[in-house]
């Protein structure tokens, strides 16, 4: 019986994958911001007006969904300005650089890596530091996550994964599935080890390049 839904992975870096449920949910996360010009007929959509035709005056403080903030970004005219959520500011970057493993990423923001990467779409002088912190946080937490996924099999892992962001939870589940598949193979319960689709596609590309 085929699955009703085949999960689609999130996009990478600055790009979103609009077929990915994770990216759709991530794009709903809100950014603090300010209206740099009047925004006609947007007050109701942002919960600041009673009628559909109400406008947001210039200078108003806003909580803007990421998808709308990106849509209003204009290189020629400054329509809105956005602020960094606190977890990406310098104080928290210092915490991450000291020991990223102590931070409850899911509590601070369930899409820490994806949302942080999307912030780089906006002109901010701190973008290089944000990008570096996101990368180093992932590197420093990755090994612990994968080690835990290999050593917590057949145990209650709810407390363990509660502190992980959604990308890290997917990595944890992938690690556990890999361990389960390997144990099944060791016990003779797996009929055959096959190459992953990623490896197969890579091989096809290589043959195509040679033929060309």
Automatic annotation (TrEMBL):
InterPro entries named among the record's database cross-references: GINS_A (IPR021151), GINS_bundle-like_dom_sf (IPR036224), GINS_Psf3 (IPR010492), GINS_Psf3_sf (IPR038437), PSF3_N (IPR055221)
Domain DNA replication complex GINS protein PSF3 N-terminal, residue spans: 20-72
Entry superkingdom: Eukaryota
GO biological process: mitotic DNA replication initiation
GO cellular component: GINS complex
Keyword set includes Nucleus: yes
Pfam families to which the protein is assigned, alphabetical: PSF3_N, Sld5
Annotated ranges, domain GINS subunit: 89-185
This protein's UniProt keywords: Chromosome, DNA replication, Nucleus
Compartments, record wording: Chromosome; Nucleus
Keyword Nuclease attached: no
Function recorded in the entry: The GINS complex plays an essential role in the initiation of DNA replication.
Family: Belongs to the GINS3/PSF3 family.
Subunit comment: Component of the GINS complex.
Protein name, as recorded: DNA replication complex GINS protein PSF3
Organism: Halcyon senegalensis
GN (gene name): Gins3
